[in-house]
Amino acid sequence: MLTLSRPKKSKLIFAFIYSSEELYKKAKNSIIEKIGKIDFESPALEFKFTDYYKEEMGSNLKRRFISLKKLIDPQKIVEIKLFSIRLEKKLAILNKRRVNIDPGYLNEAKLVLSTTKDFSHRIYLGRKIFAEVTLIYKNKDFQNLPWTFPDYRTKTYKDILKKIRHIYREQTRKKS
To answer: Which residues span the domain enclosing 107?
Structure first.
């Protein structure tokens, strides 16, 4: 007989691209206020992988990752992505984003990122939100997929994500 089961709770992460440390802090604090405490924050990393954001956000862009202490049901990523879109708009100046906020979730097997853009490898979740498995975890490391963004292919990003995955595994062990 078929048994339906709920997915395990996952580790909520946010990836930011920004040019102003002040705006990053405002975005981070809004997330903390809305969702809860963070348990990991990466250092600011130079973001030079694409010029896609340059016209809207300027140059000298930085990237940061945070993870939240509270684990989430993966289906909550739709509401969280919609919240991040509202937050980007709130922090925008003259309809230009000043900070890019990409929520996703991580578990033992994969990193999933949410997006508003459809593509062949993305799955529609509802409310104009899609998701993609960006990296899989196999052989003690994150593995690229054909569509993995260039920055997520780097050792620096994978090392950060492994730290977050370690925090997640410790959390889920304690709850077992």
So the answer is: 10-175
Q: What is the pTM (predicted TM-score) of this model?
A: 0.96
- What is the CATH number for 160? 3.30.70.260
The total number of structural domains in the chain stands at 1
Amino acid 53 reads: Y
pLDDT digits (tens, 9 = 90+) for 38-84: 999 999 999 998 999 999 999 999 999 999 999 999 999 999 999 99
